[in-house]
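Practice problem: predict the structure.
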Amino acid sequence: MTAAVSAPTDTVSGDRVVRFARAERWLHWSNASLFLLLLATGMTLYVPALSRLVGRRVLVKDIHVYSGLLLPVPLLLAYAGHWRQSVRRDVRRLSRWSVDDRRWLTSLGRRGKHRMGKFNAGQKLNAIFVAGCIPVMLATGIIMRWFDPFPLAWRTGATFVHDWFALALLVVIFGHIGKALAEPISMHAMAKGTVPAGHAERQHPRWWSELQQTQGPSGQERTKP
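Answer:
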């Protein structure tokens, strides 16, 4: 039976573990929707054949610009409410690297005896890169759209950086989608919030150990005597 979506994250509930809280899933899907919209409109503006096919270039450009301006909003909202605890906890996890993470990365994902935490090194790199792209794409996009105050060198540099980061994002995002489609358990975790307890124990043993240390067999959080 799937754990209730309202359960707190990192909670064992029977044979399921709550991996992502509702706020984290909302943040993920909001960002995913915005990035896909930006890639679609950006490619339409950049590729002449697509531009001719779609038409309405001014409308497509406006959608692209204002979708870009919205990029920081989901993260800011995720940090603003009472639900922010789970988001902040996982952001800290994504920013911390262990010896096992480095070994996982150098082995190209062949885990072996590596003890992975809640996120592996590939997931951490993906999150760090995408998060870093948000201010870069926002800043360069603003310079390109409202260019009058900026010197020509800035505009040229902004266009160059914006285009190459967009290409890198295209590769990373479609690689991420392909990886997610190949792993139904991961897709279910981001859609419904939970994974099987056995999966957590096998694939994320360090995280599983953390869960066992903080919770009893029933999934209730242990309290200090």
